[in-house]
Amino acid sequence: MHIPDGVLTPTVWIPMTAVSAAGLIVCVRIAERDLDEARIPLAGMMGAFVFAAQMVNFAIPGGTSGHFLGASLLAILLGPYLAASVMACVLAVQCLVFGDGGVTALGTNAFTMAILPAFLAFPFTRWIAGAGRAGVNTGAFLAGWVTTVASAAFCGLMIVLSGQGPAGIIGAMVVVHAVIGVAEGIINAGVLSLLLPMDPSLRPSRSRRAWAPVAVLAAALALAGAVSRFASENPDGLERLLSSGEVSFLGLSFRGLGILPEEGSAVWPALLDYSSVTGVLGVLGLLVLLVLGLRVRGRRRA
Amino acid sequence: MHHDFIDKYSFSDGPLHRLDPRAKVAALVLWIGAVNVIPAGKLYSTAGVGPSAMKLLALLLVLLCLLGGSRVPVPYILKRSLIVLPFAFFIAFFAIFFGAGPTELIGPIPIRPDGVRRFLAILAKSYLSVAGCLLLASTTRFADILWALDRMGVPRLLLMILSFLYRYLFLFADEAMRMLRGRNARSFGRRGLGITTAFRLVGVLLARTYARAERVYKAMCARGFAGRIRTLRAWHLHGTDWIAAIAFSLVVTAIAILDPSRWRPW
What we know:
By secondary structure, chain A is mostly helical. Chain A has eleven helices and four strands, in the order ααββααααααααββα. The relative contact order of chain B is 0.15.
């Protein structure tokens, strides 16, 4: 699911980087506030654990093999905020040191494989917190399956929005990862049912609340689903919407917002092709979010 | 240790090694931006090689110059960067048949000439981006990169996670490899390769991670850990750093932005 450089268009990766950066700033701030100093080495070493666990491959009937992903297990054990921060670090090292996943795609990948699974696993984490043996198994299995499938669907959506393939990619990703997700779920359930009796302190606590970000994410995903319909009918829907041409969406036809010139018009100098103008808008948005994030930090220190 | 350290050259010495890590991190960001801003549509046309292909070649030349001057073995970086191509290929492959632009029949298969350009551009761009990352990792110690990120305002918690992650990454990977070798030795390629053994291995790895984290924290407390990491080395931005960073930015930005096909002879 690691998207390399050059696949995503600036209209996709710049807004996604802004969203991920803002989301991660919030996650890190909240994790920092709640984190016991004694758990700092653990947080980092859980990242190293994810690397090691991803090396554990297993045979899938039919001659292939799969490997463990780990985001949902981390979310269950560390809570959504810290898990998202740790997974983002794992992705950053994979990208910068091992060349796995692009730098421009890092924000998108962090959303797909860190923020999204960490918070989607949260309802199941709450379930596991108060459940008996069977409940732990079911909750852990569902956390693994749901997050794997959702991440795959979102990854496919990003590729489709960039106009690199047909909308069918999303369906193909979901089908393939529905199988991988079963393995992920079984490993989650197996690990927890193995370790919880040994060390009850590993059981997630009920105290941490994260319903608000979960609700926002669910809403964003629903919206993304709607946009993907739009995108499949019209590959560069976002750009058409921002330009001044006619746009039709869900049977409605209206004039574009006029932010971008129509394709082929000579209003803009040649060095700014129109997708990079959207990029500049995205960068401005990112800066605003960063300033907001820093203000949050400043207030807490005061 | 079976994993060869990907940053094994970062401990040697060379002109790029001596530059301030902040300058190098900023240069990498600019490099990635420049590589990815180049439009795929102008890669080539029926008239011949297009401006984008020239730009990508010029950037490759810049990279080779940097590599040549860095005292990192050139083939090492160029070969290592190839690992990205299978991933890029898998995702970019669809672009040949789908997306915007007219279709053409090659035999029975309808392909899109624009898609072929996008496909080639994706491969070139991901290769150049990864090569830039590896050059940074080969000329800068990981601790120095973290120091630079700290100075650039990245939250402390992320840096602590990163430093522990990196410190124990190879250790844990080795542990996993030992366990996998044990499993393979017991299973004779048949029973025991399935998912039941896999989740037991992961469980044991996790239990060991917890135990080790506890020991490490106690050892750190014994050595006076007070919630932040200190480094012995501190960097200062000298004239050389500024000149190198500005020269690099000018060259790379010029290559990315200037369009020679629009220059009129006069």
